[in-house]
Amino acid sequence: xxxxxxxxxxxxxxxxxxxxxxxxxxxxxxxxxxxxxxxxxxxxxxxxxxxxxxxxxxxxxxxxxxxxxxxxxxxxxxxxxxxxxxxxxxxxxxxxxxxxxxxxxxxxxxxxxxxxxxxxxxxxxxxxxxxxxxxxxxxxxxxxxxxxxxxxxxxxxxxxxxxxxxxxxxxxxxxxxxxxxxxxxxxxxxxxxxxxxxxxxxxxxxxxxxxxxxxxxxxxxxxxxxxxxxxxxxxxxxxxxxxxxxxxxxxxxxxxxxxxxxxxxxxxxxxxxxxxxxxxxxxxxxxxxxxxxxxxxxxxxxxxxxxxxxxxxxxxxxxxxxxxxxxxxxxxxxxxxxxxxxxxxxxxxxxxxxxxxxxxxxxxxxxxxxxxxxxxxxxxxxxxxxxxxxxxxxxxxxxxxxxxxxxxxxxxxxxxxxxxxxxxxxxxxxxxxxxxxxxxxxxxx
Length: 445
Fold this sequence. Notes:
Residues 3-117 form the N-terminal Ras-GEF domain. Pfam families: RasGEF. The protein is mainly alpha-helical. It has two domains: 7-116, Son of sevenless (SoS) protein Chain: S domain 1 (Son of sevenless (SoS) protein, Chain S, domain 1), CATH 1.20.870.10; 141-188 and 207-319 and 368-438, Ras guanine-nucleotide exchange factors catalytic domain (Son of Sevenless (SoS) protein, Chain S, domain 2). Helix content is 57%, strand content 2%. The chain is built from 21 helices and four strands. It has helices at 12-17, 29-38, 45-54, 65-75, 83-95, 104-128, 145-161, 167-170, 198-207, 215-236, 240-260, 263-274, 276-279, 282-287, 290-305, 309-317, 324-328, 343-354, 374-385, 399-418, 430-438; strands at residues 2-3, 6-7, 9-10, 397-398. The protein has a two-stranded antiparallel ribbon. The chain has a two-stranded antiparallel sheet with strand order 3-4. α2 (29-38) packs across α4 (65-75), α2 crosses α20 (399-418) and α4 (65-75) packs parallel to α6 (104-128). The longest helix has 25 residues, at 104-128. It is elongated. The relative contact order is 0.15. The model is unreliable at 179-207 and 317-363 (pLDDT under 50).
């Protein structure tokens, strides 16, 4: 069924057929991304690829399947950590061996191997952070507020760009309901389970692939860790002067983060100042300079004002308009640059930074990052996916819901891959990066 020239629903088998049109020129990458993202509610990925290969008789060339394989390996490389998926890939390689596709498929597989190798290195680095460092014996020399903010941007970008689109579908629906968020531990095998109840729960139990990565949970854990890290560093200080310096450092870092668009770090730092153990330090707060107090007030208002920015950007693309999927998925403007908040939002951030004396200066265009608050992205995705796993009354699959979820997830994942800010190499700050991600922290209690 179509609406305004766009697919709105259909039975599973018919929608699968559209993945490989008879005419290669009609191949729709946006539809493929949207369908592959949410179809896993109804069919496992390796089963879907197997069905597609079975639809092409043995003597017939696989020209129709190679464009699909290219999009699949590029957009959802983590699916190919499944041995059953790789068995299908080996079958494709064998059938393309003596054809004009013999040189095309190896190129796709080389790119896939490079991406999976990058993922393994990232996971190995995350595991190295699990060995905690004792705060009491570790002596850390903090850099300037600007340098600290740049390190935060680097950490945020690396964690965010490794989150796979399918992880928003495979993560637990109770991910944000954990009462012990500060003690949050990633669970690589998190599944949807029967939390949604009814037919959808049965669908999850039988069709949803097991989660093979925990990048989404690791990034969420970092956001919670940064909030506690700031509080720990402030409360470790033994006198008011040292506490004031820590306040100045972290407020300056939050200021720079807002200026370049790193809303996730800025929000975590500002939330840390609101934690009861920090908020109760009345003497310390009273000793802060008037400039710092004004900065904090301005940043707080700005952070609250830009909270719904990403939501508005994705809602207009996922509202069912004809060009919604195409305009949202690329995550770039016509000239290929990353999307930016409105001028008024950026100027508000600049105003917050210019009215300071902490040494944080106006950012250059090549420093622009734009990292949305990750919890907000997860909330949007969890809300959007509720409609994806429920069939319509006529038994059709709701493709409009698929497109809505793809608009949110695709905009985030593609944007984070394209972010290419110019930041100084970690170099001498490698120890500090390791400390921030692995040091032992006290929880809020």
